[in-house]
Amino acid sequence: MEEKIIRKLTKVGQYSYSIVIPKYIVKRFGWRERQKLEFQIDDRTKKIVIKDYKKKK
Asked: I need a labelling partner for 9 at 20 to 30 A (CA). Which of 15, 17, 32, 57 fits?
């Protein structure tokens, strides 16, 4: 099931922006503070996929 959530993009420094992820989503995926996450960026469709970072062997 796809869930639609609207969030604002906030500037946090000279070169960075942030998006706040709701706490219930972080809990749903079992993420923790300071956990590494991987971003997959698709310029053609303008989509970003965020997933757990898996260390490559």
From this structure: 32
Residue 26's nearest CA partner among 13, 12, 15, 37 is: 37
**So where are the chain's domains?**
10-52
Token pair of 1 as six digits? 């099931």
pTM: predicted TM-score of the whole model, two decimal places: 0.72
Q: Give domain 10-52's CATH number out of 1.10.150, 2.60.40, 1.10.1740, 2.10.260.
A: 2.10.260
Nearest to 29 by CA among 53, 55, 5, 45: 53
Tens-digit pLDDT profile for residues 39-54: 999 999 999 999 999 8
